[in-house]
Amino acid sequence: MQQEINTPGPLLNNDGTLSQKGYSSHAVLTYNREAIKAAPWRIKEWDFYQVNNGDYCLQMTIGHVGYAGHVSVKLFEFATGQHYEITKMLALPFDSLNMPRSAEQGDLHYNLDSRCYITRHYI
Question: Is 88 left (phi over 0), alpha (psi -120 to 50) or beta?
């Protein structure tokens, strides 16, 4: 059984290991990119947002695994089973996405340009 994290504090210890193991339903631990003890190509960061109302589901993802990145916006229409998606893969983004330390503060921007892929699917 997983332990619920309720005590605020840093996500990582000084040696780069997790300070607490478990889960939380809201942001309790503070992320500090500088505390990561790994090469830049091994750092993985992403933000995922979802909004739905029973008829539609909108998902937005931006992130990277060091050497590759991904930006996407997806819309699911439940009544028809249609799924629309705009996706862009990024080569060697490392920390160029300027991701904020917290989903509760800071802004995350990315301008999808003409090199993105637009697809339509049926679920």
Answer: beta
